[in-house]
Amino acid sequence: MLDFFTIFSKGGLVLWCFQGVRGPAVTAPVNALIRSVLLQERGGNNSFTHEALTLKYKLDNQFELVFVVGFQKILTLTYVDKLIDDVHKEFRDKYRNEFQQKGALGLLNGTFDFKDDFMRLLRDAEESSKVRAPTVMKTFEQSLKSQKTVKCMIETRGEKPKEKVKNKKNKGSKKDGTEAVAVPSKASAADKQLSAAGDKEELTKDEILQKNREEFFRRHMKAGEKSRSPKPDAQKEKGKKPRVWDLGNSNAKVLDYSNSATNGSAEACPVEEFDPDMALGDKNREPGRLYDLEYESDDEAEEEKVVQNPSKPSVKKGGLGGMFGMLKGLVGSKSLTRDDMDPVLEKMKDHLIAKNVAAEIAVQLCESVAKKLEGKVMGTFTTVTSTVKQALQEALVQILQPQRRVDVLRDVMDAQRHRRPYVVTFCGVNGVGKSTNLAKISFWLIENGFSVLIAACDTFRAGAVEQLRTHTRRLNALHPPESHGGRTMVQLYEKGYGKDAAGIAMEAISYARNQGFDVVLVDTAGRMQDNAPLMTALAKLIAVNAPDLVLFVGEALVGNEAVDQLVKFNKALADHSMAQTPRLIDGIVLTKFDTIDDKVGAAISMTYITSKPIVFVGTGQTYCDLRSLNAKAVVAALMKA
Ligand code: GDP
Q: An example Gene Ontology cellular component term from the record (predicted)?
């Protein structure tokens, strides 16, 4: 039944491997697990799917070992968890001395003759699952229902059925707090087992199953309700807000677009319309450079510093209380247990949620850190808090660092060599800053010497084309053809409103190819992630035009909502695409980063959920307010107390 079972060290040394009869090559799925889960700090749930296989794994942090079992995902193997635990225990106990005395050398030179033990454990596990397996269907007479009288099944008005009353009680007790999505604690698991054992005396297996199923649905419904958390005030007002530009003014002339019905032509911008200095923002910057996000991390975590420096013990309080207080946190040469970590993790989870990380993701992150640390031997003079914090910090940096780096300038040059324009599509809901950030990216590309054609494919929202036209004029005024050897650096391609966006994008791309533009930036209409017809249209636009880069534009202001948008956009692109391998989102533009202070959690949520990189960060309303993501800066902001 199993395809394979392998044991390897975290350093990558395969110690032992069992391969089933039908088993495919072990390497590809295990490599995928290492790349996508273990290295990406997504180890929250111990299970991973790769093509037709399900992989389950367990980490031994004390000896730095990984145990992985692979089986066909269509199978429901109930014994796998037990098997992996048993193998872990037996393997570790059998070779404990080898690991302890010889360390890494023990792994290199060790001979791990484990086949017989493994086969025995596998047999035992299979047997134990069979013992419990088929339940004989009971007759009606045997069921509890047959013993009920008709009378007791009638519900009288005003009298609530017992089951419902019980549910209500449960709801009340869980009312506040986010525990609904939290990982069940050991205590609660034990409670459940106990109560299940108690129930067994009266209930049959089928009824227990039914009860559990109901419980499961109830919990999921609750979790679903909770994840739809109330939106922040800023989000309440959906739709387009009137935009007030720092660099603009509100006189009627500026707002009058009636005489500007150009079609794809670039016009010089009247000088009185905007102040170029204000449009540019920072005057001291290096033109064309995409600066990293900056963040000043403050010197917090003083308690950790004190403990890490054993020469200066903090025995300020004096007396035994202070002394014990200090020693309490020290776990020198002791291996970390779940109980040690739980209080710290709980605090970390709340901290992450307070920083706008989506609740479910905060739970998974903490779970992943716990799995990584459990059993690990801590150094002397290290607190549990600092160990957990450091592991979490590393995990967060890892998550923010993309598996695939997007280097737009390099890719544009590559497209140039192939004599074709590099095409970027922007998508997202309304008002998140698609057009504004598209203009900023145009500006950055122009400063790097690339010409840009902006394709106005938002043919839906009134004013969308005019908004892009204004940007085009301003960009042209900042970079007139005279300063680029007579070359028009930015132009708008538009066909007005109500037309098919996919068609306009296609025309724009071929126009750009003929006119020698380096980049085409396709603006699309804002749409809600749940709007099926509009999502189909977007999938079509992407499928037909095959852009080099599909960027999802999302606001940093939102937590759970941003994750919902991103997941649904990706899913809709997959669902509505006609292609066999649908084209999904390649990267993220995180906007309005300047408005969130240190509540930077959306950055973590978005990258965690999609594994896609944040390519650009919008940090304001001028053309220079564009940054690249600096993972360390974001994590510093996130960890700040
Ligand atoms: P679209 O509907 O997605 O195209 O959104 P717009 O580009 O029209 O932007 C909506 C509003 O957000 C405008 O008022 C922009 O000036 C503002 N905006 C866009 N990006 C940023 C940003 O990075 N920081 C701030 N503070 N505001 C931004």
A: signal recognition particle receptor complex
* pLDDT tens track for 435-480: 999 999 999 999 999 999 999 999 888 899 999 999 999 999 999 9
Residue 427 CB-density burial (10 A; 0-12 exposed, 13-18 middle, 19+ buried): buried
Task: Tell me how far the alpha carbon of residue 433 lies from the centroid of ligand 1, in angstroms.
Answer: 3
Tokens of 162: 């017992």
| pLDDT at residue 63, as a whole number | 82
Q: Do domains 2-130 and 408-634 have the same CATH topology?
A: no
The confidence score (pLDDT) of residue 221 equals: 55
The number of angstroms, rounded, from the C-alpha of 506 to the middle of its chain's C-alpha atoms is 32
Would you kindly state where each structural domain of the chain is located, as residue ranges? 2-130, 336-400, 408-634
Tell me the pLDDT tens digit for each residue of 252-311. 444 444 444 444 443 434 444 566 666 666 667 777 788 888 766 554 444 443 334 443
Contact residues for 97 (Cβ-Cβ < 8 A; gap 6+): none
| 561 CB burial (10 A radius; 0-12, 13-18, 19+) | buried
Q: What are the structure tokens assigned to 526, written together? A: 């804002």
Q: What CATH number does domain 408-634 carry, 3.40.50.1820, 3.40.50.970, 2.40.30.110, 3.40.50.300?
A: 3.40.50.300
245 CA → ligand 1 middle, Å: 10
Q: Whose CA is nearest to atom 13 of ligand 1?
A: 243
CATH fold, domain 2-130, is: Beta-Lactamase (3.30.450)
Q: Quickly state the pLDDT bin for 32 (edges 50, 70, 90).
A: confident
User: pTM of the full predicted structure?
Assistant: 0.65
| 587: pLDDT strictly greater than 70 | yes
User: Which distant-in-sequence residues (6+ apart) come within 8 Å of 151 by Cβ?
Assistant: none
| pLDDT attached to residue 404 | 72
Say which residues have a Cβ less than 8 Å from residue 405's Cβ, sequence separation at least 6. 613
**By alpha-carbon position, which residue is closest to atom 14 of ligand 1?**
243
The finding on whether 243 has its CB within 6 A of some atom of ligand 1 is: yes
436 lines ligand 1 (CB under 6 A): yes
Long-range Cβ contact pairs of 390-393 (< 8 A, separation 24 or more): 392/348, 392/365, 392/366, 392/639, 393/635, 393/639
Protein residue with its CA nearest to atom 2 in ligand 1 = 431
Q: Which two tokens stand for residue 24?
A: 């495919």
